[in-house]
Amino acid sequence: MWHRKAVVLCATLASLAAASGAGIAQAANACADADTNLAMKDCLGKAYLKADKELNVVWKQVLQSVGDADYLTPEQRGAWKKELREAQRAWVQFKEHDCNGAVGYEWWGGSGASGAISSCLLSKTEARTKDLKQRYLDR
Fold first, then answer.
1. What is the distance of C-alpha 101 from the center of its chain?
2. What phi and psi, each to the nearest 5 degrees, are found at residue 21?
3. By the 8 A CB rule, do 111 and 12 touch?
4. What is the CA radius of gyration of the chain?
5. How far apart are CA 103 and CA 80, in angstroms?
């Protein structure tokens, strides 16, 4: 029984990957050896924590790059940082509500819900990190 559920969850993650991009695909590949829902949840949870740590490192670098923008006045740099912080807070709220709220309802508390929530958190976090790197660090 658990094997069937794990296969269903892996198939679901693969279909989500096709619909949602590389983040979920990477998560599904990284956790392909997980043979139970619990193992999948644990693997995805660890991957999310790693991605979240990377986002926090990148976020500090982004704020530093704005602070180093010597073509702007100190007031302009301060205003830019304020806007960025507000945007980041809004993004966090979106991520939390979408993944911990909407995705949970999509699964109606089924056995794959926690894995789907972790996949959502991972995918959105990886996408945000990539976006911040492209916009502020890789230019």
1. 15
2. 105, -175
3. no
4. 18
5. 33
Question: 120-132 pLDDT, tens per residue?
Answer: 999 999 999 999 9
Tokens 């999948």 found at: 40
CA dihedral over 47, 49, 55, 61, signed as positive or negative: negative
Phi, psi of 70 (to 5 degrees): -70, -5
Reading the block at residue 87, the tokens are 């945007």
pLDDT tens-place string over residues 57-95:
999 999 999 999 999 999 999 999 999 999 999 999 999
Residue type, 136: Y
pTM, to two decimals: 0.77
Contacts 24+ apart (CB under 8 A), 96-101: 98/124, 99/124
91's tokens: 């993004």
What 3-state DSSP class applies to 89? helix
